[in-house]
């Protein structure tokens, strides 16, 4: 099956600074893929490249097997700032959507606007930030795309609205086989919504894969203080925190942990994300005793 997104050595530069570099990633179709990373990690840049809103400075990207931007009816992109026409009303946005999109689902768009209690006669410029996000998301879903690209679109929604939106999204995934690529800082939301994860740090992909598979391949090891360099081959240290007598490591491995000195625990999604986001070696002096964390 054609992947939702495939990139080879993809990069985007602003002046001399790379916002995204050497990005090689393959996300299978039918996934709800979450893109996570610190502010400035390159998430919006990758999404804008996938949507055809930016040209790469290096490498190649294919979306649903084609050049970004060449399958306009099949891909819907909701940018971070809920792109709407401030002077047009809610109803006018729906009419415009119907005129521009051959697969437009007018009935579900109207039903969603009713359910949200948005006044059809209200101009977009007079809606609250969350209401604007709701309208932009409704327009994106009503296009009935094959791929929906969302750039932190749910961030402005209140918790109830986020739950409602998640349910709508997952219904569309189940009913229409919609693929989704979304950026979010809300790990709890990602956990409930996504089945695939891409972690970016400093413009580079740190890890990518199906979430179940990633969680199955990572372990937290806690035990007497130890140099991560002494671990067996096949146990790749992602993050390490050392206290005076104790080490706590997140390791990636396909092998069982046989060393009885370690207490072995599962790694949750938040731990995994933080471990990969923590990036290059950091030395963190802590009160009273020396602590260090670094990535192998
Ligand atoms: N138009 C631009 N001109 C110059 N630099 C830019 C531009 N857009 C983004 N950048 C830089 O590229 C890097 C990646 O930005 P990007 O917006 O992709 O990050 P992000 O992960 O989406 O961040 P956030 O979580 O804050 O939205 C940042 O260092 C940012 O300052």
From TrEMBL:
For the ABC transporter domain, which residue ranges apply? 5-227
SUPFAM superfamilies xref list: P-loop containing nucleoside triphosphate hydrolases
This protein's source sits in the domain of life called: Bacteria
The record's keywords, sorted A to Z, are:
ATP-binding, Nucleotide-binding, Transport
- CDD domains associated with the record: ABC_DR_subfamily_A
Instruction: Supply the PROSITE patterns for this chain.
Output: ABC_TRANSPORTER_2
Query: Molecular function (GO) terms listed?
Result: ATP binding; ATP hydrolysis activity
PANTHER family recorded: ABC TRANSPORTER ATP-BINDING PROTEIN ALBC-RELATED (PTHR42939)
Write down what this protein is called: ATP-binding cassette domain-containing protein
Taxonomy, top ranks, is:
Bacteria, Bacillati, Actinomycetota, Actinomycetes, Streptosporangiales
């Amino acid at each position: 099956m054609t992947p939702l997104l495939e990139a080879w050595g993809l990069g985007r530069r602003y002046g001399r600074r790379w916002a995204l570099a050497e990005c090689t990633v393959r996300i299978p179709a039918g996934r709800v893929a979450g893109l996570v990373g610190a502010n400035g990690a390159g998430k919006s840049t990758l999404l804008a490249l996938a949507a055809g809103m930016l040209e790469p400075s290096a490498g190649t990207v294919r979306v649903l097997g084609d050049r970004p931007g060449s399958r306009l009816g099949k891909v819907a992109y909701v940018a971070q700032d809920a792109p709407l026409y401030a002077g047009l009303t809610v109803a006018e946005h729906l009419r415009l959507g119907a005129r521009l999109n051959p697969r437009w689902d007018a009935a579900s768009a109207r039903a969603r606007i009713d359910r949200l209690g948005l006044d059809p006669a209200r101009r977009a410029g007079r809606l609250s930030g969350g209401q604007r996000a709701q309208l932009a998301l409704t327009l994106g879903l009503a296009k009935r795309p094959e791929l929906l690209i969302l750039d932190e679109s749910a961030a402005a929604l209140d918790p109830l609205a986020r739950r409602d939106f998640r349910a709508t999204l997952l219904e569309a995934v189940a009913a229409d086989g919609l693929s989704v690529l979304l950026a979010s800082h809300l790990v709890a939301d990602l956990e409930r919504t996504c089945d695939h994860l891409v972690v970016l740090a400093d413009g580079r992909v740190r890890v990518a894969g199906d979430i179940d598979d990633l969680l199955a391949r990572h372990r937290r090891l806690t035990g007497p203080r130890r140099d991560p360099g002494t671990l067996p081959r096949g146990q790749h240290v992602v993050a390490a925190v050392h206290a005076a007598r104790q080490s706590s490591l997140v390791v990636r491995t396909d092998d069982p942990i046989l060393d009885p000195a370690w207490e072995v625990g599962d790694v949750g999604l938040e731990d995994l994300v933080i471990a990969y986001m923590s990036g290059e070696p950091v030395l963190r002096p802590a009160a009273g005793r020396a602590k260090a964390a670094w990535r192998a």
